[in-house]
């Protein structure tokens, strides 16, 4: 009887982590984006009622620039470096003690898998940064020139 409850709890946890959690993240993200769009529409409608001679495209362009900071390609790549470095260090922090425990004390724990996965994800982010930096160098320079011209 206890085995049935253990299996049932395991199934509930797996379904919660692998199905419900990602769905909730997607739902919350979409809800936030819809809220932002609704607020921009409300502001635009109020401005159009007060000043009917304004160009809606120009107003939207100004609203987008002032309401939300735009990340450049370089900033996105630097975010990948930050994430990759953090995940790599966390993977090593989990992996090294478990390897030392295995070698010196004969412990056979499953922490090696968690550390290995984190290390692999971190290295994937760092490799993505290096490859993207080479491939997007022209776009990064063009974006920097455009930002200098706007200032």
Detailed description of the structure:
The protein is mostly helical. The protein folds into two domains: 1-68, no CATH class; 71-151. It has helices at 2-50, 56-67, 73-105, 111-135, 137-150. Helix 3 packs antiparallel against helix 4 (111-135). The longest helix has 49 residues, at 2-50. It is flat and about 75 Å long. The chain starts with a helix and ends with a helix.
List its traits.
151 residues; mainly alpha; 2 domains
Topology:
Layout: H1 2-50, H2 56-67, H3 73-105, H4 111-135, H5 137-150
Largest sheet: none
Note the overall shape. flat
Span between N and C termini?
Answer: 71 Å
Average pLDDT level:
85
Q: Total helix count?
A: 5
Mind telling me the C-alpha Rg? 24 Å
Beta content: under 5%
Helix/strand-derived category reads mainly alpha
Q: Give the tally of structural domains.
A: 2
Low-confidence stretches: none
Compressed to H and E, one letter per element, the order equals HHHHH
- Report the helical percentage: over 70%
The tally of strands reads: 0
Summarize the structure.
The protein contains five helices and no strands. With 151 residues, the chain is mostly helical.
């Amino acid at each position: 009887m206890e085995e049935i409850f253990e299996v049932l709890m395991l199934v509930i946890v797996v379904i919660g982590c692998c199905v419900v959690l990602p769905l909730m993240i997607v739902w919350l993200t979409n809800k936030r984006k819809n809220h932002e769009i609704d607020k921009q529409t409300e502001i635009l409608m109020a401005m159009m009622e007060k000043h009917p001679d304004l160009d809606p495209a120009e107003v939207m362009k100004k609203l987008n620039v002032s309401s939300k900071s735009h990340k450049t390609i370089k900033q996105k790549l630097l975010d990948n470096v930050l994430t990759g470095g953090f995940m790599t260090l966390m993977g090593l922090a989990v992996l090294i003690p478990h390897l030392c425990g295995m070698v010196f004390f004969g412990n056979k724990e499953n922490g090696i898998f968690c550390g290995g996965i984190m290390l692999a994800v971190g290295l994937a982010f760092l490799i993505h940064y290096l490859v993207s930096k080479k491939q997007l160098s022209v776009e990064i320079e063009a974006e920097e020139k455009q930002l200098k011209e706007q200032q």
